[in-house]
Amino acid sequence: MGLSSTPDAPPPDCDGHLAYVMWIARECHGLTWAEPYSAFEQDLRISGDDVDYFIENLENRYGDWVWTWPWQRFAQTNEGLSALFPVILIWQLATWPFRGSFEYPTKFERLELRHIAKILEAGEWVEP
Question: Which long-range contacts (CB under 8 A, 24 or more apart) does 43-51 make?
Fold first, then answer.
């Protein structure tokens, strides 16, 4: 979310779970490019305290059971960089012209926004 803005009101329950999940991503986190197929960490880069903020928004509507999901499989849940970051950065810089991309590799599984909505609809954890 931007420093000087506040999110619009959340969509009503009748709009469905996906509408609320998209509202969290787009309005609360300011990720206007978020789509239902966007992955939590890989595409949206939600990590650290932003994970907690995302979960808190889910909790506001769906209850505290959302905290029991295995979030650590899908995103970095604490702040900070890997101790190997300098080595990885040098490797990325050195090989970038050959690979054609510059990305920090991720160890996390994909969790798409539409799957978060599917879990909420099921009322229990469902593997992606």
Answer: 46/75, 47/75, 47/76, 47/77, 48/76, 48/77, 48/78, 48/79, 48/80, 49/79, 51/75, 51/76, 51/77
